[in-house]
Amino acid sequence: SIQNIPQLPPDPLFGLKARYTADTRTNKVDLGIGAYRDQDGKPWVLPSVKLAEKAIHEDPAYNHEYLPIAGLQQFTSAAAKVILGSDSKALKDDKVVSVQTLSGTGALHVAALFIKRFYKGSGSVYISSPTWANHIQVFETQGLKIESYPYWNYATKELDLKGFLGAINSAPEGSVFLLHACAHNPTGLDPTRSQWTEILGAIKKKNHLALFDSAYQGFASGSLENDAFAVRSAIDSFDGSLPILICQSFAKNVGMYGERAGVFHYVSATKDAALQSAVLSQLQKITRCELSNPPAYGAKIVSKILNTPELYAQWERDLVTMSSRIKEMRQTLRSELESLGTPGTWDHITTQQGMFSFTGLSKPQVDSLEKDHGVYLVGSGRASMAGFNLGNVKAVAKAIDQVVRE
Ligand code: LMR
């Protein structure tokens, strides 16, 4: 019989969303789940997406047929070019196997299964402390052991590079290191280029497996090239010696949140056609067992954008629109807090990048913001910067000022 099923607490992010939705205060502010909002606080359908949808609907061949098990090939191969670069040596050398996934989480799930079944390493997956809440359970539910590496120095609000490198050096040879490609979630703090070089050098030396979670390419800095720096450096530096796994999401950078358009890429260390064909067959089996074949609509939209030069150019402008509005909100929030003389330092708000700011607010302060001011952010003090706009930033700064002084 079915019994003894323990009740789980609500998901930290979607539970927060549910509390926000149920709140009847008209001045409530949602700084929870990372989803872009425009200057009026509304979800934004990217102009490039609107154009792509129009073109898809006007195509006489429009239909809702199944995609192949590995997904829409024009989508996955164009997606590989986005992350690896159109002149990527790995692509030219034919070392990349790509399959469509249920966005970033689906790609991470595929990575977890792939590692569990086929990776003969130390068995542990190292994640940053802190990291995105879902990372832990995606790997743990597959029976993989999670370890954490130091990342955020709470005292200085800077990268704990020494701790990070120490963990890489002391992890058993061949461990898996999950790396945020850019716009680290939740801290918004990314290693500098020279820090990445050190980190990747240490990973290579220990023969660890680098697993990149790339959920914010182009969204962080406004430049697709810039935000791919870490991934492309790893590809260059590991070429010929170590494979690399990449989980790519188009939820944020194309605003395809609910359409679940993502890709898992396996980049082989050396060209090995038989191995790559075997990898593809196994990835296809994972998909076939779990979802038969991936959802088509979001993939068709993203594919249309990536494969149509004018739409690609519009998408690049859309990325700048989103990232620059967020940067502006970072500046405004920081200067509001500084002009209120709010105790503490607030420069980290503008040095961090991407969707989130790790504000440094404590759990009790976050609780008071929610209870007394209708301002919702994650318990860790993570705020989605996209939730700010000129209509609410002053009020939120005042609310923060108040809870910090309480
Ligand atoms: C977030 O961290 O808020 C987003 O990535 C949404 C999610 O799926 O948790």
UniProtKB/TrEMBL annotation:
<keyword id="KW-0808">Transferase</keyword>
<dbReference type="InterPro" id="IPR000796">
    <property type="entry name" value="Asp_trans"/>
</dbReference>
<protein>
    <recommendedName>
        <fullName>Aspartate aminotransferase</fullName>
        <ecNumber>2.6.1.1</ecNumber>
    </recommendedName>
</protein>
<dbReference type="GO" id="GO:0005777">
    <property type="term" value="C:peroxisome"/>
</dbReference>
<feature type="domain" description="Aminotransferase class I/classII large">
    <location>
        <begin position="27"/>
        <end position="400"/>
    </location>
</feature>
<dbReference type="GO" id="GO:0006532">
    <property type="term" value="P:aspartate biosynthetic process"/>
</dbReference>
<dbReference type="InterPro" id="IPR015422">
    <property type="entry name" value="PyrdxlP-dep_Trfase_small"/>
</dbReference>
<dbReference type="GO" id="GO:0004069">
    <property type="term" value="F:L-aspartate:2-oxoglutarate aminotransferase activity"/>
</dbReference>
<dbReference type="InterPro" id="IPR004838">
    <property type="entry name" value="NHTrfase_class1_PyrdxlP-BS"/>
</dbReference>
<dbReference type="Pfam" id="PF00155">
    <property type="entry name" value="Aminotran_1_2"/>
</dbReference>
<dbReference type="InterPro" id="IPR015421">
    <property type="entry name" value="PyrdxlP-dep_Trfase_major"/>
</dbReference>
<dbReference type="GO" id="GO:0032938">
    <property type="term" value="P:negative regulation of translation in response to oxidative stress"/>
</dbReference>
<keyword id="KW-0663">Pyridoxal phosphate</keyword>
<dbReference type="GO" id="GO:0005829">
    <property type="term" value="C:cytosol"/>
</dbReference>
<dbReference type="InterPro" id="IPR015424">
    <property type="entry name" value="PyrdxlP-dep_Trfase"/>
</dbReference>
<dbReference type="GO" id="GO:0030170">
    <property type="term" value="F:pyridoxal phosphate binding"/>
</dbReference>
<comment type="similarity">
    <text>Belongs to the class-I pyridoxal-phosphate-dependent aminotransferase family.</text>
</comment>
<comment type="subunit">
    <text>Homodimer.</text>
</comment>
<dbReference type="InterPro" id="IPR004839">
    <property type="entry name" value="Aminotransferase_I/II_large"/>
</dbReference>
<keyword id="KW-0032">Aminotransferase</keyword>
<dbReference type="GO" id="GO:0043023">
    <property type="term" value="F:ribosomal large subunit binding"/>
</dbReference>
